Amino acid sequence: MDTLKSGLQALPGLPPALHAIAAKIDNGERISPAEGLYLFESAPLAILGAMANHIREKGHGNRTYFNRNFHIEPTNVCVFSCKFCSYSRLYAHREEGWELSIDEMVEKVKAYDGKPITEVHVVGGVHPKMDIHFFAELLKRIKAHRPDLHIKGFTAVELDYMFRKAKLSRLEGMKLLREAGLDSLPGGGAEIFDPSIREQICADKVDAEGWLDIHATAHSLGMHSNATMLYGHLENYQHRIDHMERLRQLQDKTKGFNTFIPLKFRNHDNEMSHLPEVTAIEDMKVYAIARIYLDNFPHIKAYWPMLGREQAQLTLGFGVNDMDGTIDDSTKIYSMAGSEEQNPSLTTEELVGMIHAVGRKAVERDTLYNVVQEF
Ligand code: V47
Ligand code: SF4
To answer: Could you tell me if residue 136 is inside a domain?
Structure first.
């Protein structure tokens, strides 16, 4: 166990509550929900940054990971109507959206033949006609074409609907998809677990218990997954801590989560457009407190297409050690919600340059954080 001490607790003039938290961080101890709440309510950003950066450097030094991947979005037709979603179209309006066939999706994979991509991220709306057998066939066709490509696919929201529609238990459904080629799960659909907020922003989709159980099921089969938190809308600090606490508890049991990804609510063209977006200061607080609170999550990721490049660089001083790193991200979920990046795409050189520009070391990883290449 690394015994590096930061001397955080020796900072002069810290109020007693902050001093106690600094001492815990210096000693590698876990903070409580009440302490997490205190950090949101009362800690100066500079102190949060110092604490989060200490934990980040203790775990990863200067290393900042990225991945070479691409996205496939099978459809934006969705049976649900999350109020923050700018991207989905109801089945009745499906002519305004897109629905890709298996052949079209396999063509997208073939477009990367000969390119050093390690992962495909498959995620989209919940289409009433694209069932588990359709997706199992897609997974098999991708694996038949490129067996070494890691398939990270389907949020717990998509999986919950697929399994229920096929009348399969979560374990049966997950096994079916794993056998067809699914390697891991992305972190989407978690939003905010608190039922009173969920009721207001995404009432009809899988609840917190269901989301967590689907991830626990994947973990029980040896699959890894990510977790997200949509912040900066109706939730308060207590709800953010509750969300992270539930994730921390599941991670204690399964150790199956790789990465936590805070997702900033963007207000363009959705039913929550009247809400202002939170400031960059609030963003940095969320990243830093996530790094401090989630002591059993190995990685904290900033998803740059949503935050924008400069802000993503800034997060590297606030606990983040992963930049996702999609070099050709055709995802529309953020561009349609008004993110900084309308057509997110970075070459490896650009991404490595962004990481090096803020004094960090760029490391290419695969989905499971095996090192592919150091820069
Ligand atoms: O669950 C939707 C979010 C998520 C908006 O696991 C919005 O590696 C902000 O989870 N403003 C899907 N956010 C994307 C996702 C993801 C992305 C990148 C990497 C990984 C990973 C996962 O996007 C949804 C929802 O929380 N979202 N609309 C919006 N207006
Ligand atoms: Fe559908 Fe996902 Fe959009 Fe909700 S966030 S409406 S589940 S595509």
So the answer is: no
